[in-house]
């Protein structure tokens, strides 16, 4: 499931939603294999880098004391691809570490960064999201199988309806939070050129290749990347 959080995989939320919809059966099967039933997705938002010093290019990150969530293989793989040696910490230690100078850059969706008050210790926002952060609501398959057919349908239908509404609200609130942070004085770096974005996608591909067979299957990775290629080809054709 963490494949959906892979660094520099999706260019937009629309791409994330399209791929999730296309590979719905495979993803649900993966969840059931683990003993759960997927009731629906929860979008946590685009993950940005927030820093005390201005970060305007990939090379700038090597100069910073970047935080990485301790034990998170996705983020660790992303920083490894960048050639960055981050400081691993639990979430509860981040605020104090920002205050003491142990770290000077963090990452997260705008809403999360505001909720944790990390924004009060940084000055800059890097405009290229690392990833689209995804969550999910699951229920024990053992319990779900005790329900009759009509009950199962009711649970799935209601979950799909309300989680869709929740995602619309969450994405809107993340957009508002990003705007609010800029109004409060955080500077959003200028958009990088197409060559820099291509570089990130190359780095993302390298990170995903390293994680394939460990965190997610190479087969599922291939399906996701194939679907993305086809999706982008259709988009270019339409435009």
Q: Describe the global form.
A: globular
By DSSP, the count of extended strands is 6
| Top CATH class | Alpha Beta
Contiguous low-pLDDT stretches (5 residues minimum) are: none
Nearest-integer average pLDDT: 93
Estimate what percentage of residues fall within beta strands: 15-25%
Description:
The chain is α/β, with parallel strands linked by helices. It has a single domain, classed as D-Maltodextrin-Binding Protein, domain 2, CATH 3.40.190. 52% of the residues lie in helices and 19% in strands. It contains ten helices and six strands, in the order ααβαβαβαβαβααβαα. It has a four-stranded mixed β-sheet with strand order 4-1-5-6. Strands 2-3 form a two-stranded parallel ribbon. Helix 4 crosses helix 9. It is globular. The two termini are 32 Å apart. The mean pLDDT is 93.
Top keywords for this entry?
D-Maltodextrin-Binding Protein, domain 2; 239 residues; 4-stranded mixed β-sheet; globular; two-stranded parallel ribbon; alpha/beta
